[in-house]
């Protein structure tokens, strides 16, 4: 397979930081221009504060209805990491594996299907604009759309050995404010209600909810409080993240955090909680296993799989009950850093694999592909 990475380079060099709406929309226009020749109809979900979300729809025939899912945004602010370069084995740049590279895999797969069948059918593509900042705007849209399909494939980066992702932890995030009563630490110590002290006790209790054997963690990632050593702190804040691998642990951690916040108020402080559940667990299911079995049959060999602690929009799609598999992008590393890169041979493998998969699922072809070798 002879891929021209100049096209990917153009996509990479367009800054699409999540909070750069102009840049995200510009990147969206790039994708529209590339997808337009494939015959898709476009639905644009216009947004004021984040980039527009884009849904590309194909014709309907008798095959299974498949949703491809990706995101347009990256984590790199404007004028930070913008360079693209390549060597014999890798391409480098912001988004080459997370996830402009994954979207480029999907684009080339659709081109292959167009060439093979003359018309694209039964495979639609949703590109959202805010995945890297939690998908707060796109989450309900993704859920509404994903539940209409027989399966959803997400193009986040593959594992090191080209694993597909069958499970992801759920996540909840909180910004908690503790309000006490400020006072002079020397003259009026007894009159104060120490927000810092209350928050410190909360921190210890919340962290104790962690159960590594069950894959459940609570991390107090940032704390701030008080104005100086000679003043009883009247206000303190903390940012808390909880991750969990199943619904029961999700319930335990979320209830535990809320109970700790309520219980500490007996000391006289007031606690305000903002945030909560951000993405629910993506857990293996019988329907997902059936989909994976079909894919293994199409490709002629068993595909490696993995569970990941990080979240993606696959969590959201899976929450609707639609069988969902993630990790169909290229293998890469250094994502979210200025060393981000993706393996060239991985692009080739994923394009070949997904072309075979969609050929079978969407067009009901009876011809099973010969085994596709691993890179």
UniProtKB/TrEMBL annotation:
Keyword Transcription: no
Superkingdom, taxonomy of origin: Bacteria
One Pfam family in the UniProt entry: Peptidase_M20
The entry's keywords: Cobalt, Hydrolase, Metal-binding, Zinc
Gene3D superfamilies (alphabetical): 3.30.70.360, Zn peptidases
Molecular-function GO term, any one: metal ion binding
InterPro entries: ArgE/DapE_CS, Bact_exopeptidase_dim_dom, Pept_M20_glutamate_carboxypep, Peptidase_M20, Peptidase_M20_dimer, Peptidase_M20A
Requisite cofactors: Zn(2+)
CDD domains reported in the protein's UniProt record: M20_CPDG2
Active site, per annotation: 73, 131
Polar residues bias spans: 313-323
Peptidase M20 dimerisation domain residues: 166-262
Start and end residues of each stretch annotated as Disordered: 307-337
Protein name (record): Peptidase M20
Organism: Pseudoalteromonas luteoviolacea S4060-1
């Amino acid at each position: 397979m002879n891929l021209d990475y100049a096209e990917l380079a153009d996509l990479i060099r367009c800054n699409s930081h999540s909070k750069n709406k102009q840049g995200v929309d510009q990147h969206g226009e790039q994708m529209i221009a590339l997808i337009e020749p494939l015959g898709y109809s476009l639905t644009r979900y216009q947004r004021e504060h984040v980039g527009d979300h884009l849904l590309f729809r194909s014709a309907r025939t008798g095959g299974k209805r498949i949703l491809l899912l990706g995101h347009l945004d990256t984590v790199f602010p404007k004028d930070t990491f913008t360079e693209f370069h390549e060597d014999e084995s890798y391409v480098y740049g912001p988004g080459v594996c997370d996830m402009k590279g994954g979207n480029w895999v999907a684009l080339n797969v659709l081109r292959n299907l167009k060439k093979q069948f003359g018309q694209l059918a039964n495979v639609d593509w949703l590109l959202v604009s805010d995945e890297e900042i939690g998908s707060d705007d796109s989450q309900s849209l993704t859920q509404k759309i994903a539940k209409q399909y027989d399966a959803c494939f997400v193009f986040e980066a593959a594992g090191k050995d080209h694993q597909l992702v069958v499970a992801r932890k759920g996540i909840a995030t909180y910004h908690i404010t503790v309000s006490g009563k400020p006072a002079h630490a020397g003259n009026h110590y007894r009159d104060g209600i120490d927000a810092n002290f209350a928050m410190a006790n909360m921190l210890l209790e919340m962290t104790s909810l962690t159960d590594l054997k069950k894959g459940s963690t609570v991390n107090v990632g940032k704390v701030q409080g008080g104005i100086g050593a000679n003043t009883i702190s009247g206000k303190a804040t903390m940012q808390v993240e909880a991750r969990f691998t199943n619904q029961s642990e999700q319930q335990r951690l979320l209830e535990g955090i809320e109970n700790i916040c309520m219980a500490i108020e007996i000391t006289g402080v007031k606690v305000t909680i903002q945030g909560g559940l951000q993405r629910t667990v993506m857990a293996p299911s019988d329907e997902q296993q059936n989909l994976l079995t079909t894919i293994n049959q199409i490709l002629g060999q068993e595909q490696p799989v993995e569970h990941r602690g990080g979240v993606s929009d696959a969590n959201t799609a899976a929450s609707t009950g639609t069988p969902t598999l993630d990790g169909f992008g290229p293998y890469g590393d250094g994502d979210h850093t200025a060393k981000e890169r993706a393996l060239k041979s991985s692009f080739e493998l994923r394009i070949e694999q997904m072309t075979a998969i969609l050929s079978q699922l969407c067009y009901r072809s009876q011809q099973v592909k010969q085994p596709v070798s691993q890179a």
